[in-house]
Automatic annotation (TrEMBL), chains A, B:
Catalyzes the NADPH-dependent reduction of L-glutamate 5-phosphate into L-glutamate 5-semialdehyde and phosphate. The product spontaneously undergoes cyclization to form 1-pyrroline-5-carboxylate. It catalyses: L-glutamate 5-semialdehyde + phosphate + NADP(+) = L-glutamyl 5-phosphate + NADPH + H(+). Signal peptide: none annotated. HAMAP family: ProA (MF_00412). One of its GO terms (molecular function) is glutamate-5-semialdehyde dehydrogenase activity. It is found in: Cytoplasm. The gene is proA. This is Gamma-glutamyl phosphate reductase. One of its GO terms (biological process) is L-proline biosynthetic process.
């Protein structure tokens, strides 16, 4: 490090510490605000998004042209793009969050003890949440809105390619906070998209209570490695669908095509199809043909490559079993029974969402019990892995770790609790 | 590091990795074992403790004479001591854990979606839990038993002073596992009490899912600083009792004496008494006199030192407000109203257990809302901070963090969950 960069880094550390302290103070204020005030801020933010729609789209245009110049893929560019419909969708999303029941103050348990003590377990905010995410700028509104709803301050770190768009969206959220008389510092973002700022953020355990990283294995591992703060990982989905020997063929075909092809870019999309050896002759040709006619590229093991399905099947190499394509590509592997399927999934999956298709209830139950994932499905498409589809409302994402919250993370999951004990002078014998 | 210590360290790393992999494999087996098998292991371990009582007491005698030679305090020696009653208490504790309802497989939520998907949220084990604790050897039985009950493998690291006692107890737990046909590696301890082994343990994120440190601020901070694994901190209790201006004097006196003096060595003992300025003349003399006659040393601020209570009051220095005495000593401070009390507690407390004594319901509710602690009490002794007193059965301790579990941590709190989704071929539109 040169003397000059060391000075710059000291400046950044000091700026980050100010930001952390401001977030901590804002969190204390937010925790005491009533549900009306938090919901007013969400409503006002939605209005601001609509008012500032043109400005947000103009900021997005700057990000888009930089991204095009950098040669980002069409899929990435689509993730980044904002138009008036997408801005309106963000505004509607904030209004929907405002309409949820209040996640705070919920009585999670209540008990009366023989000695007369009344014990209540009450939902409270976590405090300050740091959220690290990649390209989609709408996460700024969704994640910020959920933190605000649950009484938490948030420090956001979006991808550098969406910096202008996210900045414009954040201004609207802060306008909502101001209008509701809440501190602007309740929702902030890092002063720079420089990686060094993330590194500093991950050490700020005094002022940040939880880090939520959303993204691929590289990002998650870096964060878990560096963070001095508890991490709730949202790893991308490397999801499997397993066609058991007793699967209904038509159902298996429909589920496989939907699980892979409905939307290829979401984390609940199936990336690897496992087919039981006993279903290879009976089921696999139809399943593969349906995937191919839906426009999917097949990468298979030797058995799959040898199938005659009217098109050639590429070879799946070792790396394919660990690849989240997020594209119209699927890897297909023949497995020797349920044990083999479960063992492949527990080794290669991202503990996100896994499915079995079978008419055999015993096999289904064994799969549900033994697969180690946030969501395990029987006879359903992995694309249902979504807080909205679960009836939980908006979500920050699907937590793939086992601590605190697992599966869809909405406003309720961004809370902790405390025990309130009410007595009339009891002392312990 | 010399070449020789480097080799020794490599050996230790390799031994620790073997231990971690064995724990991971045992956890997978344990997760599939039914409740009867886990309870059989607990019952058999209780029997083994009774059978081996003499051997355990002999091992404890070795620890005791080393501790006496080291000059440990009488309080520390008492924590370390095992006699036949205490061994019997451990056996009864394991039997009580066996009698609890099964924490696994509990249906935490169930919902049926409009599209016919059935969604169930089911309790599952966390996996492998590393537990780091200090002197009391009985923690080996309690913590090991709770992990086994909840289907988790455990890696235990007790204090070096109790190494022989803990080893003898662990052998009984492992005998129970063997007898029930479960893998011995489900409960292991570090091969050495060398601090280096703890350092290695804290990096084993592949094989350990959660670290539970129980102890003082130094231990907790070291673990939080070094750990690459999520930490559920059990910080010692720096608990306060606040006598509000509208407190009933007799109740305030009884609670203060009980909260401090019933047992001074437990984490729920009050260490600092806050007295509202408006209660100084009316309440404080009686409260202080009662504490003194119960054998308590008083350390006070200027106002408290000036009180005439028939004995001299020592000066409380800055450090006293951050000291957990675990002894017959209390620091006493006069505060200017509820705001001042809450602010002192949120700054100096360990987020464990805090109490207010008052007849004013509004003041009580404000205190319950604004104090940031796992347990907040109104008109009750802080000594009630205990899983058993909460009706939750045995506990590993009181979690002082906000992530995953807060407050008493029993078998239920050592679980995660997964969502099971059952369909009949649904695909997402």
């Amino acid at each position: 490090m040169t003397a000059e960069t060391a000075v710059l880094r000291d400046d950044l550390v000091s700026e980050m510490n100010d930001l952390g302290r401001a977030a901590r103070a804002a969190a204390a204020e937010l925790a005491m605000a009533g549900p009306e005030q938090r919901n007013d801020a969400l409503q006002a933010a939605a209005e601001a998004l609509r008012d500032q729609s043109d400005k947000i789209i103009a900021a997005n245009a700057v990000d888009m042209s930089a991204a095009e110049a950098k040669g980002l893929s069409a899929a990435m560019l689509d993730r980044l793009l904002l138009d008036s419909d997408r801005v309106e969708a963000m505004a509607l999303g904030l209004e929907a969050i405002a309409d949820f029941p209040d996640p705070l103050g919920r009585v999670l348990e209540e008990r009366s003890r023989p000695n007369g003590l009344q014990i209540a377990k009450i939902a409270v905010p976590l405090g300050v949440i740091g959220i690290i995410y990649e390209s989609r700028p709408n996460v700024t509104a969704d994640a910020g809105g959920l933190c605000l709803k649950s009484g938490n301050a948030a420090i956001l770190r979006g991808g550098s390619e969406s910096a202008n768009s996210s900045g414009a969206i954040l201004e609207c959220l802060q306008a909502g906070l101001r209008k509701a008389g809440l501190p602007e510092a309740a929702l902030q973002r890092l002063p720079t998209t420089d990686r060094a700022a993330v590194g500093i953020m991950l050490t700020m355990s005094e002022d940040i209570d939880l880090i939520v990283p959303r993204g691929g294995r590289g990002l998650i591992e870096r964060v878990q490695q560096e963070s001095r703060i508890p991490v709730m990982a949202h790893l991308d989905g490397l999801c499997h669908t397993y066609i058991h020997g007793d699967a209904d063929k038509e159902m298996a075909t429909e589920i496989a095509v939907n699980a892979k092809m409905r939307r290829t870019g979401i984390c609940g999309a199936t990336e690897t199809l496992l087919v039981d050896r006993s279903a290879v002759e009976s089921h696999l040709p139809d399943v593969l043909k349906a995937l191919v006619s839906a426009g999917c590229e097949i990468r298979g093991d030797e058995t799959v490559q040898a199938m005659e399905i009217g098109t050639s099947v590429k070879e799946a190499v070792a790396q394919d079993w660990d690849t989240e394509y997020l594209d119209s590509i699927i890897s297909v592997k023949v497995v020797d029974g349920l044990d083999d399927a479960v063992s492949h999934i527990n080794q290669h999956g991202s503990h996100h969402t896994e499915a079995i298709v079978t008419e055999d209830q015993t096999a289904a139950q064994a799969f549900l019990n033994r697969v180690d994932a946030a969501i395990v499905m029987h006879n359903a498409s992995t694309q249902y892995a979504d807080g909205g589809e679960f009836g939980m409302g908006a979500e920050i994402g699907i937590s793939t770790g086992k601590l605190h919250a697992r599966g869809p993370v909405g406003a309720d999951q961004l809370t902790s609790y405390k025990y309130l004990v009410r007595g009339r002078g009891q002392v312990r014998p």
